[in-house]
Design brief:
Length: about 290
């Protein structure tokens, strides 16, 4: 009854107090958001140098990284601290830096390149790709020397856009007329030009910037063909994280320290070679 009496007798004063309270709450929300961002940046540095694995998980939660593009490969026991003798990797997307740690010791650190964050669309009602480095806790699933890159469809779409070309897909068992009486088809692991007399000529190895072009269209090769296998693009070594993501070397060392990759974490070849020699399969990788 006292509250009702207050509103009846207070009138304008009562509503003014309510308005002031709402403004105060809005200002507090904005201040909280800014404070959270500052704490996030501070905690990324703290987790690297203080070996605080509980903090790693708290930062993951506070940054909203609970639903990542690598959800299917995220480790279910993300909050569990590894044994004290187990080293792990931390990657800061914002700082473009990687640390390899054991307890409170930094065993190795270097600059890296991370995802550009750009979006590529293939056309009306087509696929869409966002090139960002996934955040969360991953695990080194495999180690590879002299890895070959199997470019996804987005690579060919991106190359076609750069050159002002259309797209044509070649499937196994299919032939595409080449305009000179020959046809382009798949023979074994090769895409070949097959002539009317039955002769076949390989269309060459897969190489970035040297994709097959037919009549104004860039050709997307089938998986498993040599034309969809690029050597040297990933540098000398790769640490596989799953779902097409990895820590790997590069044939573009000038890109290190920038947000330019299609989602993977790039290192200079000498740095990935050093890390490759230290890291074991099963090593946790924390990306923030």
């Amino acid at each position: 009854m006292g509250v009702v009496r207050f509103f009846r007798s207070g009138g304008v004063l009562a509503w003014a107090l309510i308005g002031a309270l709402l403004l105060l709450m809005a200002g507090s929300s904005a201040l909280f958001a800014r404070t959270a961002l500052v704490r996030h940046e501070r905690d990324v540095s703290r987790m690297v140098f203080n070996d605080n694995l509980q903090l790693l998980d708290e930062v993951r939660k506070s940054s909203g990284a609970l639903d990542d593009s690598l959800a299917s490969t995220m480790v279910a026991t993300a909050t569990a601290a590894p044994p004290a003798t187990t080293p792990y990797i931390v990657v800061s997307i914002e700082d473009h830096r990687l640390w390899y740690k054991l307890r409170d010791s930094v065993l190795f650190t270097t600059e890296v390149a991370t995802g550009s964050g750009k979006v590529l669309e293939s056309g009306p009602a087509g696929a869409q790709w966002k090139f960002e480095t996934p955040r969360g806790r991953l695990v080194v699933q495999a180690k590879e020397q002299d890895p070959a890159w199997i470019p996804p469809d987005w690579h060919f779409v991106e190359q076609a856009r750069k050159r002002g070309l259309g797209i044509v897909r070649l499937n196994r068992g299919q032939s595409i007329p080449a305009g000179d009486g020959s046809e382009i088809t798949v023979s074994g692991a090769d895409i070949v030009r097959r002539y009317a007399d039955g002769r076949e000529q390989s269309m060459g190895e897969g190489k970035e910037g040297h994709e097959i072009v037919l009549g104004g269209n860039l050709l997307i090769p089938p998986f498993g063909t040599n034309q969809r296998k690029y050597k040297g693009v990933l540098g000398t070594h790769r640490l596989v994280l799953g779902d097409g993501y990895a820590l790997h070397g590069t044939d573009k060392p000038e890109s290190i320290g920038r947000s330019v990759s299609h989602g993977c974490v790039r290192l200079r070849n000498e740095d990935i070679a050093a890390l490759y020699g230290m890291v074991e399969v099963g090593t946790p990788v924390y990306i923030y």
